[in-house]
Amino acid sequence: MPDVSVVVAVYNTMPYLTRCLESLVAQTIGHRRMEVLVVDDGSTDGGSKEIARFATRYPYLFTVVRQPNSGGPAAPSNRGLALARGRYVFFLGADDHLAPQALERMVERADAWESDVLLCKMAAVGERTVPEGVFRASAPAIRLLGDGLPWALSNTKLFRRSLIEEHRIRYDETMPAFSDQPFVLEACVRARRISVLAEQELYYAVRRKDSGNITFRACPETRLACAERLFDSVCRLLEPGPLRDGFHRRHFHVELYQLFGPDFARLSPQVRERVCAGAARLIGAHGDGVLEELDEHRRRVLELAWRGEVEALCAHPADRPGGRPEREPGRSALVRWLLAPVGRGLPAGGEDPWAGRLRRR
C-alpha cells in the first residue's frame, strides 16, 4: 500500500500539465511510497499525449484513465478516488505543481499529528489568489471556525483515505461548479483532527495566462443552483449557530456575490430576473445575522439583489474577485470547465443597508 495517492483531474491544461506531472516525478518521498492517478476528462489540447508520455516512462508511478468530458471536475475526481490505494489521498490541480518535498513533508507531519485532514501552505503564481489567514503558522489542530478554514475550501489538501471511505464522502457529480467545497466541508466536519503545515510553501497555485480552450461554461443559473447546493450542504452538516453562519458568510462573500459581475448586465432580461430572484431566496433563507458582517460593498450589491433591483445591479456590478487575502484559492484548475464572471467596483458610502431589514426566521 502506498503512503499517498495523488489524484489529478485533467481537462485542457497544456502546457501547465507538463510541470504538474514533472513535479510529481520529482517528489522526495520516492516513487515506492506514492501513486499518481491521472483522469483525463476528454482533453482536446494534446494533454492526452503528454499524459501517455509520462505513463510510458514511469509505468509503476502513473495510472491513467481516459473518459469523455463530464462537464466538471467532480466525476474525474471521484474516478481517481475510487482507484486510490494510499493511506492518504491528495488532489492536485492539473495546472498547479508541488515543491519537491511536499508529499514527504505532508505525510510525515500527518503521521506525527494523527491528522485526518492536513492543509499545506500555498503560493500564488501569476494573478492567482490563495488563502493566507489559515497559513499564519503551523498547527497540529485547528478549529472549523476561527482559524480561517471557511476561506480555504478548495480540495488541495491531504486527506486520510480511511476517513473518506468510512463516511463515503464523494464529489457531487451534479454540480458543474463548486463541487469540491461540500466534499471538503464534510471531510473537515467528520475529521478528528485538521492540521496546518505552514512552515514553507509546498503547493504552487498557477493562474493561466490564457483562459482559452474553454469548451464548457456553466450559465449563471447553473452557478446559482450550485451555490444553493453549497448552502444546503452547510445546513446538512452544521447545526444552526455561529459555526453555520461562518460558512454561510463565506458563500455570500464569494459565490453569491460573484453572480453579479459585469457579465450579469449582458444576460437576457429573463435570466437576470431569475438569477436575482434565486439570490433573493438564498438571502432571505440564510442572510439574517450573516450579511451584516460582510464588507459594505458586498452588503450593498446583495441588498440590490434581495430587493430585486435588477437595473441597479447592472449599473453597479460586483467587484473583481481577489480583494480579500483570505479568499478561497482561485480556480484556474476549474476554468476549463467553467468561466466565472469578474467585475468592477460599486461606489462605497451610505448607511448600513441591512440594519433592521431581515427578521430571524
TrEMBL record:
Signal peptide: none annotated. GO terms for molecular function: hexosyltransferase activity. Residues 5-132 form the Glycosyltransferase 2-like domain. It comes from the Bacteria. InterPro entries: Glyco_trans_2-like, Nucleotide-diphossugar_trans, TarS/TarP_linker. Pfam families: Glycos_transf_2, TarS_linker. Residues 227-314 form the TarS/TarP linker domain. This is Uncharacterized protein.
